[in-house]
Amino acid sequence: MNIKTYILHCKDLPERKKFIEDQLDKNNFTDVTWYTDDDARDQRGKDLTGTYDGIRPEIFVEKVKVGGWNYLHNPPRALNPAEISLTTKFGKVFQTIGEGSDQYSIIFEDDAILKDNFSDLFHTYLSNTPDDWDVIYMGNGANLHPKNIEKSKLAYKIDHPASRCADSILIKRDAAFLIGENYFPFDLCSDWEIGYLQSKLDLNVYWWEPTIVSQGSETGKFKSSLR
To answer: Distance from CA of residue 114 to its chain's centroid?
Structure first.
């Protein structure tokens, strides 16, 4: 696994770092960058204008509509410090990937749980994914799955809204650049903000199924750091 990989990590959660480090070593990841800036405690007391401008009801509702969700069931709300932190981290990493030289990169949240044979599965799945992909979701966040699963099919192009939480994303450089230049200031939590931008920019989003990553905050391995 010599694919450029970014880990979004909160410094206050060392047990997560050790757990994912072991998984990366087991799968022979060779090019890993840990993004540890912009933790909630790092942002405390800072002027976040231009990053997160607080609740903007009209813009919040418009983004929910463009993203493809029901705005009546998702009214405007302010993000909590942990959500602001994670959403900031994603935006900064998208910008880094978009300005880089790698054709595509992986982003993991620090509670990602990889299948034991992740590296072998990854290459098999990627070779079976149409070349028009911009973003691929490798995990099953919120227990989301394609509607019509077919035998022997591994990659499914998904209509918007196409976010699937954001524990494990594979993204092309050009898509990351577009997301990064439109990302700030954000109004929604990370997976929704990304979903909104995927829809606004008309990106081609695929889900892999069966999934090769699960989310530790959902399986009970870790306590959620966002609530």
So the answer is: 15
pLDDT in tens, 139-185: 998 999 999 999 999 999 999 999 999 999 999 999 999 999 999 99
CA 183 to CA 122: how far, in whole Å? 28
Contact between residue 198 and residue 160 where contact means Cβ atoms under 8 Å apart: yes
Q: Kindly list the structural domains of the chain, giving each domain's residue range(s) and its CATH number in brackets, ordered by start.
A: 5-219 (3.90.550)
Q: Report the C-alpha gap between 12 and 39 in whole angstroms.
A: 9
Question: Region 206-210: what's the mean pLDDT?
Answer: 98
pTM score, whole prediction? 0.96
Burial class (CB in 10 A: 0-12, 13-18, 19+), 177: middle
Structure token pair of residue 119: 């590296």
Strands 104-109 and 168-172: antiparallel
Contact between 90 and 189 under an 8 Å Cβ cutoff? The reply is no
Q: How far apart are CA 21 and CA 110, in angstroms?
A: 9
